[in-house]
Structure prediction request, 177 residues.
Amino acid sequence: MRGKRKGRIALSLFMALLLTLSVTACGKSYEAITKDSFAKAVSAEKFSVTDQSSMIKDDSNLEVVYLAQPKDKKDTKESDEKNIFSGQYQVEYYKFDTADSCEKSYDKIDDELVSTYKSADGYKTTDKSSGDYAKRVVDTKERHYVVMRVKDSLVIAISPADKADTIDKIVDSLTVA
Prediction:
């Protein structure tokens, strides 16, 4: 009897180990965002795209910079918030020379965003990260902010609170697992 019980326990532990390994191996692997996929996603939401890569300095770790803003300028109203990310309605795309450079920039922007708005009216935040992917969303009474990193690409989206659905739709369309 004891032998069968030990065998069952050993088999159960082995199966649990296999299940754990298979779940870990099946984690999402995200594809890097390209300038073309970015341009397509923002254009679908009636944003115009400007290539600002010519502003990159030679010693920079950036390769591509795109800025997208609504074609309809009435959507770009000023905010009452007076902080570093306020008063805008736009989506920015950055391609870095390495994933490590991108991750360092993401971490810095993420820290600034949270520390700037943690005492704002209506503040709430969510974050998610795994391997090559990280995303922070910060909402205040007036603004919606998303910072997302996928491998060597970074997206920063800023909008009035009432345009959050548009921004989320754009950002969600960029994450291909």
Notes: Residues 73 and 89 are 10 Å apart (CA to CA).
